[in-house]
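Many introductory courses stop at the sequence. We go one step further.
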Amino acid sequence: MPLAVPYWNGETYRAALQAVFHGRIVVGPEVAQLKSFILSRIDAADLLLCGSGSLALEIVLTSCGIGSDDEVVIPSFCCTAIVAPIVNLGAVPVFADVGDELNMTAANVADVLTDKSKAVIVPHLFGNPAEIEAIEKIARAKNISVVDDAAQALGATVEGRAAGSFGDAGIISFGAEKVCSGIGGGIAASRREHFFAGIELPRARSASALNFPSTLIRRRWRRWTFPLDSLLRPKAEPDEPPLSYRREGMANISAAVALTLIRTLDENIAARRERVRIYRELLGETKQLRLIAHRRGSACLTQVVRVLPRRSREDTAARIIDALRADGYEVQGSYVPIHLLPPYERWRRISLPNTENVWPDLIELPCEPEVSLRDAELIAGIVLRTIK
C-alpha cells in the first residue's frame, strides 16, 4: 500500500487521454471550465491558473507588492517549497513557531513581526484549518498582507468559508501529495476583483504532456511500480533546495484532470474523514500516542501522530515506520523544520521550541481513499503492536 496515491477514476483517465488525442494538451476549453468552477467553489472574484502552486504563491506575493528585503512570515514546520517564491522576489523568509495542531497561530505570528514585515503566509497543514481569521486581524492592524495557503487544504472550510478565500489572496495546488493530486498546476485566487491585473503568464509548454505518464508511473500506479523506484528519479532529500519551477500558465491537460478531481472532492474528503475517525477510535486512548486534532471543516489530508518515546534515545516513531513498511505500508515521518536545514538556516532568528521539540516524533498516517477502511484498521493495529 503506497503513500499518497491520487484519487482518480475512469473520468480522470478519459479526460487526460482526450486532451492528448485531440491535440488539447496545452490549449483547450478545460482551462476556462476549471476557472469558472473554482470561482464558484471558493467564492473568488479573480483567478490566475498557473503551472504550479509555487508559481501561484510567487504571483500572489507579487500582487501584494512584496519586493526586495521585505520580510515574509512563514511557519518553519512546512514544506521547503514555500521558501523559493519568497527568495525569488528578493524578500526574506522569517520563520515562526507552530502550535499544538502544527499550524501557525496568531501568537506565533505576533512573536516575529517587525517593522519590515510585509506579508504572512498561512498554510493549512495536512488539510487542517489554521486560525487564519485571528492571524488576519493582527496583520490588518499593521497593514501586513495575508496569503491563505490552501495548497494542502482544497475543500477545507473555516466557519463555513472555503480555505483559500481568506486574506488578500490565496493559493491551491493540484501537485503531488495534495487532496486533489493531479498532474500539476496551481491557482492564485482573490476575492478582490482585478487583483492579478497586468500579470500575464506565458503559454504552457508541450512538455506538460510528460507529466501525465510520469504521474501514472510514480504515483497512480505506484503499488505496482514501487520496485522500480530506485531506477527512477530519486526523491529529494529534506536538506536539498526545492526544484525550480517554470513560469507558465496551467496546461489544458492539467486543467482537464483537475476538473475531474474537483467533481469528486466531496466524496474524497468524506472518505478521508472516515479514516481519521478510525485512527482516533483505535489509537486515541493510547497513552504513548497523541493524535494531532483536525478542526471542524478539515480536508484531512493525513492523520499526524506524535509518538512519545518511553526512554531517552529511543526512536519509537522510526520503529513504527519500519514495522509498517515491513508489512507493506509506505508511511513516513513528517517535515524537518526548515530553519534546521543547511540551505535555510541563515534566516534563523529565534528558537522555535514547539517545532524543535515535536518534529522527530511525528508520523503521517495515510487517509487517502485508496487506503481501505480495513487497511486503516490494520495500520492502527501495527502501530499498537509495535508500541507494546
